[in-house]
Fold each of these.
Amino acid sequence: MTMFLKYDKYMSGKRTKCPLVTPNSSDSGIASPYSEILFEVLLFNTLAPSEAWSPPACSQAFTVLGSQSLIELTKIIRCVNSFTDVAGDVSENPDQPSSQTLKDVVTSSLFFFGNNFYIDGVKDYSKVIKEWGERKKLSLGETYPMSTTLFRDLTIRLNYPYLYQHLGDCEHTIIFTEARFVDDSDEKLDRASFPKVKYQEDSMMQKCYICGHFYARWVVQGTDRLVFETNTLCDPCFKKYNYVDGKKVGEFQAYRILLDKK
C-alpha cells in the first residue's frame, strides 16, 4: 500500500473527471453513439517481495462501461491466489479431503482510485489503512461503496497505477489505459455483455516443473531437493518424488491448487 501512496508525489498529470452521459432512453440495452463511455482496464499479477525487482505481468484485460458499478468488475477478476486451499500445508497427509478455497472464506475487496477507497461492504479494509495514514500524516480521501459507485463517477489518470486488494493482503496494480465514448464503429453494443474479459492469463494452467507435461496441482516450498523455493508439480510427480511407500521424504510444505470449477 505504501508504494501506491508514495507514487503519487512523483507523478504529474491531469486527473480527468469522466463526462456525464445519458443512456439511450429508447433502447436501454443497446448503447447508441456517444451515449456511453468505454474504459479499457488492465489488472497485473501480485508480486512477492523477492520478485519486486521484476515488472509484474498483466493477468487480465477488461472493457467496462461507464454506467457499470465497480462491484461488477470484481465479479470477473480471477487471481490464482483465490484458489488456494485454506487447509494450508498438507504435506503430512496429501490425500486428506480438499477444503474450501481462500476466496470462499475471505470475500472482502477494495479499490484505491484517486486517493479514495471503494469497498464492497463485507469488511472495510480502508479503516486500518486510514489509521496508518493518520500516524504517518498522510492525507487520504473518503471511503465509498463499490455497489453505488459507477466507473463514470471516478476521477482518474490514464496509464497510472491504482490498487485492487482482496483476500486480506493480496494486492494487484490496476491501470486504465483508455477512456472513450461509444461511437459509430461500435455496432449494436449490448450493455448486457459487459464488463467483458478481453484477455485472460491462464495462470492456473502451469505445467509441472519435473515432467513438463501435465498441469500442476501442487505448490511445493521449503525443500532442498528441488531447484527453486517455490515449485509447481503435477499430482503423479508430486507423489512419486516426495513420498516413498506413502511416507514423506525430507522437509517441505505442500499446498493444493484447487481448480476453478466455474
Amino acid sequence: QINDVYEIAPIEAGKVGGVARIATIKKDLKANNPNTYLLMAGDFLSPSVYNSLMFEGKRIRGRQMVESLNAAGLDIAGFGNHEFDISEAELQSRMNESAFDWISSNSYHKTKDAIVPFVKTTSTGMERLPAYQIKTFKDADGTTVKVGFMGVNIPFNKATYVVYTDPLESAEKIYNSIKDSCDAIIAITHQQEADDIILAQRLPGLALVIGGHEHDMRYDKVGEVIVSKAHANARSAYILNLQINKKTGRNKVSSRLQMVDETIRLDSATNLVVQKWMGIAEKNYASIGFDAKNIILNSGEPLDAREASVRSSKTNFTRMVVAAMEKAAPASQVSIVNSGSIRLDDILQAPVTQYDIIRALPFGGSIMEVDMKGSVLKQILDAGVKNLGTGGFLQY
C-alpha cells in the first residue's frame, strides 16, 4: 500500500522514497507470492512541480506519475481529493493512459446531461470505472478465493465536473451487495482517520481499510478490521498479508511498515521512466528562464520542510519563506502563508537549488497585500492554531 505520492524521484538527497524503489518492493514480494497487489489510496496526480510544465504542447498534469506507476506495476488506484485539482479533460487523459485499474464508489462524473460513472478509454474500447471489483486469486494448491475491492473518497474538492455521494453510506451499500460473493472485502479510502475508524466500526466484516489523506503513518485495529496509512511520498509502504481460511470463514491480517530507503534498490525499468521525466522538467525550466541546477543557497544547516514539521511548528525553512514574502512586499508588517502550500515534504541539504524552491511551492499564485484591523489578524492567527497538524496551520 502507498498513498499521497507527489514525487516520482527519491527525496532527501536520494535517500528516501522513489517510485522505482516501490517497484522493487512489489517485484520482490510477487516473486514469493504471485497474489501480490500494489494499491494506491489516492492523491498522486496533483499537486506536483510537474503540473505547470509543458510536454508535447500540453501541461504535464500528472502524466509523469501515471507513466511511473505503470512501470512500477500499480494494480488498483482510488481517487483522492487532489485528483480533481486538474481539469476534466486532463483527468480523462490520465485515466486513459493508466495501465492500472481505478475504483470509484462515491465519486461520479457530472456531465452536461447527467451524473454518471467516470470512464476509461483503452485500446479495446470504453469502460466505466466500477464502484467495486471482485478479484479471484488462486493458491499454490489450487484453492480459489474471491476478494472484493471498493474505494471511497472525501467529498472535499468541489470541482464542477465531480459529484460525491456520502462515503460511509456508499461503502455500506456496496459492502452489503457483495459480501455474500466474497471471501474478504478491502476498502481503499481517502479520508480522515476518524472516518476510516467509523467505517470499520460500521462494517466489522471488512478485512482491511487501506487509507490515505493524513500524509503520516497511521495504524488502527478496530475490532478485527485493520486500518492502515503509509507515509506520504513513498517514505514507507505498508505490506499487508491477508490470509483467508475458507473452512472457518475467518481471515487473518499480518502487517509491517516497510521504510523506503537506500537499502532498497531502484528498479531499473521504472527508474528509466523517472529519469526521462526529470530531464523533461529540466528542459522546461530552462525554457522559462530557470536553471534547475543553479545553486541559490549554500547553507550548512539542513532546512526542514517536512509536512509533519511545517504543519505543526515553525521551521528554519518556513521562516525563510515568510521572510522572502516580506522582502517582496516591504511595506507589510506581517506575512502569512498556509503550510499546506508548502509541498516539499523533504529536508533540504546544501546546496539548495532553484528546483528545490520550485517543488517546495508548486502551486504558484501571487502575494496579496491587504490592510486589516488587528482584531481580524488575531482571528486569522487563532484559526491557524486550531488547524494544528493540517495544511491550514499558518506560518508567519
